[in-house]
Amino acid sequence: MLRYSLYSEDQIREPDLLESYSSDNSSAAENQQERLVGWITGFVDGEGCFSINFIRQPHRPGRRGYTTGFQVAHEFAVAQGAKSVDTLHMLAQFFGVGAVYINKRYDNHKEHMYRFCVRKREDLIRRIIPFFECYPLKTSKRGDFKKFAQCMKLVQTNSHLTKSGLIELVRIAETMNHCKPRTDIIRILRDYTPNAGPRDR
Fold this sequence. Notes:
Elements: E1 2-4, E2 11-13, H1 14-47, E3 48-56, E4 70-81, H2 85-95, E5 99-103, E6 113-118, H3 121-134, H4 141-156, H5 163-173, H6 183-192
Antiparallel strand pairs: 1-2, 3-4, 4-6, 5-6
């Protein structure tokens, strides 16, 4: 569409102006998105945690347990004190999954702790893992994330419901999060690999 200026005989193309305005807005939105993504990855690098845990759930009278005797629990979590809980709600809103939980403290700490947690398998596989694969973490936590994603692939195919799959999960999980000794992992390895030596665990 063409129009004439009231102040000159020059013709002005409105679509060109609109395209320029749209381009500027698009660039601004991209810059804002880039800053938000950078904030999220930096925040998770400092305060986030990817964890795989094992809960003993054998068959009991009147209650069916897991064939392997263990339930696999998976979680992505970010923790903050009460004064910064708004940042956790921002994460929940951004990802559109998970929830913020309070961890009340009655010791000498001045404030309760809050955690943004995502535990549902589908949410982890479809929202959390793709995001951090697209926007990698920068610290050593990147290694924990890669191992976490590897574990979730095994869970997605139900490999964790088999003895061999559970052992594979355990061997990956025992190298995550500073490799702290964990009784649940030691118990599984002892039960399923009785001949494994200390260096094999």
